[in-house]
């Protein structure tokens, strides 16, 4: 945080008056009995409506069949139907459909299962399961922060030690990443949201991607957990460009190092999409041999619906343009609100991402918890403070994640105004406490 | 097997002649270049067609919404929509919807995840994860045999020792079960398919269910894995009656001992159904707290489709009557074929189940492998010998699982005729070898 801000030169009296004024405004907001929710990255109704045709399409016209897996109503097709794999191949830089395996509706679930499989069966055939590393040999994951709470929860539950890595404006601090990955055989993974990171909206630079793709891990079962959740989720016409990591890895003959995860949760239906793992053929072969034990196969009917509805790369791009129309004004409303209330105060900084689902706001140190508690009093729900850090511990107590997609623009404007009062009040209280 | 059979009094010459005759018939079948598959319990096209209306229903009429989970297109609703839970409650003896949790399309996947969770996190809050039992402390599961290969594969993969239990005509040998469960704290579970068991089609008697419900396990984290896969899958109007185990457990205050699994895979779509875990409220509470780490929630749209299409208990019963019309003649065709070819020979015995998906055939000892290999030569694919036993080891090499649901009646008749030739030939070869 900058040292000097709007209140730096205030006298004690002035601070007291300002606090009184803010407390009054706070009271006015409280009287409104607001009920506004900006906690999670949830699509709004208008976004969901875009995919309604998918629910009524007549699949009898194609006999409910996929090219390679036959009747999608029946069992089988463990790795998913080829039509949908082709679609994702063209969007992710995968060289072949054999580098793509489809699953159900939750990419988080694939990540979870990859971790669990690594714990019990090992990352590749013959590797030591992490649960058998021996006493005091806990696996470790690197966690660029702030990051996605659900990634961190998985690690916490399974006793995987998390190490914070600074997320710079071009991606994780690669000096630190290289030192730890290349030096410590217990470092088994790194969580990455490489495009429009959650919550900062940062896209990794070409250099960062190249360095990630050329890691020389001390652990031979190290994997990059590449959660490409927002791979086609641009808020501008161009969007950020993300270098194709699979191509880079292949150049270095290190493609087995990647587990990339994508889904249509924020393309079609958040609860009823499909998701995919993108990895080397060798990895897919191993993983599918283990998933074979777990299930007879994924819901291919939903995969077929998706393939027919979204068609191909161009179809997805066109569909995402419709999301953009809905979302862009919402992100702008938050930016306008933050600028109006906090611009020039030096009390906070925030990112203006070109895509993704969040705006990451940094308030003065030791003020995030207090701000979020005050906002809750006003009926403005925000993700709990600390959530964007491993073990829910924000070392600066400074980061607040704003999720602008679900509320209406009016609600967002109101919520941001209210939030900014809370930020100021929390800070002034910290000064006068 | 009975000691005396049709060939018992044959002279060496007669056996040789019979072998020659059978070899000729075998050759005739071979010339037909058959391609018949009876390996898996897979619904046929006509069965799948019964649920096609589900794929075209207009969910906009109910605003894509469930009573408790709101917009099913969006995130949330971890335990599943209440409409579908009500439907299963009325079919399973669950006392409340809080005893039911819905998942995706694969009940096998829930079973798998329950095992994995037990390995890494423990069966209940505070219990010792099985992966931390200590050296040489392998968890054990009791496996009534013959049984379902996929159950056994899960145990095998995760190093859970399997103990064969004789499956009598009224269920597992409960003397043996009680001795092991009540005496050995490493016995953590038992696999049960209580109605129309896979492959025998046996339904557990009231006494067996009562004794199961009154086990006093040495392990406080013992669970009955009750795979009620065929709970509404009757082949006769009445069907077999299965005592309500949850009610029995509650009488004994032992309801935490149960994990019941059901699905609509063989009600609606094998690949696109929904499935559920039925357990005590305490168990559901614990399990959902862990599944929370794993996923944001199941595909509620598919749950909604199912609830609207199947409606309630009466709706499911009526729907299953349509399956019965399709399946009954198929099971009869197999029975007729077996009777025609093997009746009175004392060479084989088989069950005539009142429901389920299989006919279990016992051929002379040491002849199952050989029979299946011969059938494969004729283009008749059967589940590999041994599959119905842990570690794929049928101690008698005698059991063959026939899956009559997928092929047409003509194909079934042909396949059974061919199979019976193979049985006789395998047996005669064993005598003359």
Description:
- Two copies of one chain form a homodimer.
- Chain A has 433 residues and is of the alpha/beta class.
- Chain A is built from 13 helices and 15 strands.
- Chain A has helices at 12-31, 45-49, 82-92, 107-120, 149-157, 174-183, 206-212, 245-251, 281-294, 300-310, 313-342, 368-377, 409-432, and strands spanning 36-38, 65-66, 70-71, 100-103, 140-145, 161-168, 171-172, 187-192, 223-227, 258-263, 275-278, 349-350, 359-362, 380-382, 399-402.
- In chain A, the strands form four sheets. In chain A, strands 4-11-10-9-8-5-6-7 form an eight-stranded mixed beta sheet, with helices on both faces. In chain A, strands 12-13-15 form a three-stranded antiparallel beta sheet, with helices on one face. A two-stranded parallel sheet of chain A has the order 1-14.
- In chain A, strand 6 and strand 7 form a beta hairpin.
- In chain A, helix 1 (12-31) packs antiparallel against helix 13, helix 11 crosses helix 13 (409-432) and helix 12 (368-377) crosses helix 13 (409-432).
- The two termini of chain A are 20 Å apart.
- At the A-B interface, helix 4, helix 5, helix 9 and helix 10 of A face helix 4, helix 5, helix 9 and helix 10 of B.
């Amino acid at each position: 945080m900058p040292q000097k801000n709007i209140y730096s030169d205030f006298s004690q009296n002035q601070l007291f008056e300002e606090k009184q004024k803010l407390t009054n405004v706070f009271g006015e907001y409280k009287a409104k009995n607001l009920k506004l929710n900006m906690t999670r990255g949830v699509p709004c109704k208008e976004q969901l409506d875009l995919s309604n045709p998918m629910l009524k399409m007549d699949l009898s016209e194609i006999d409910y069949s996929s090219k390679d897996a036959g009747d999608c109503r029946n069992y089988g097709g463990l790795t998913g139907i080829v039509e949908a794999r082709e679609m994702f191949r063209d969007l992710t830089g995968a060289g072949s459909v054999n580098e793509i395996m489809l699953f159900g509706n939750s990419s988080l679930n694939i990540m979870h299962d990859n971790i669990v499989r690594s714990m019990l069966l090992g990352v590749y055939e013959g590797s030591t399961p992490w649960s058998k590393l021996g006493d005091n040999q806990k696996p470790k994951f690197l966690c660029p922060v702030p990051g996605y709470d659900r990634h961190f929860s998985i690690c916490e539950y399974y006793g995987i030690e998390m190490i914070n890595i600074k997320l710079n404006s071009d991606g994780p601090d690669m000096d630190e990443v290289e030192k730890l990955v290349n030096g410590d055989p217990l470092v088994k993974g790194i969580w990455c949201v490489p495009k429009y990171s959650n919550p900062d909206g940062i896209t990794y630079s070409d250099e960062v991607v190249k360095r990630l793709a050329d890691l020389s891990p001390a652990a031979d079962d190290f994997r990059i957990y590449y959660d490409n959740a927002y791979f086609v989720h641009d808020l501008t016409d161009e969007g950020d460009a993300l270098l194709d990591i699979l191509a880079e890895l292949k150049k270095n003959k290190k493609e087995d190092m990647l587990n990339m995860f994508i889904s249509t949760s924020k393309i079609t239906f958040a609860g009823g999409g499909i998701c995919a793992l993108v990895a080397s053929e060798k990895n897919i072969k191993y993983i599918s041999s283990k998933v074979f034990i777990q299930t007879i196969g994924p819901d291919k009917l939903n995969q077929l619906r998706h393939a027919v509805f979204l068609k191909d790369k161009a179809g997805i791009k066109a569909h995402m343009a419709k999301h953009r129309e809905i979302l862009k004004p919402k992100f702008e409303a938050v930016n306008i609100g933050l600028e109006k209330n906090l611009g020039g105060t030096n009390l906070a900084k925030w990112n203006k991402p070109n895509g993704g689902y969040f705006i990451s706001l940094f308030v003065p140190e030791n003020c995030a918890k207090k701000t979020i508690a005050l906002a809750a009093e006003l009926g403005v729900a925000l993700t709990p403070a600390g959530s964007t850090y491993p073990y829910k511990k924000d070392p600066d107590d400074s980061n607040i994640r704003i999720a602008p997609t679900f509320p209406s623009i009016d609600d967002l404007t109101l919520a941001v105004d209210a939030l900014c009062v809370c930020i100021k009040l929390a800070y002034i209280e910290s000064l006068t406490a």
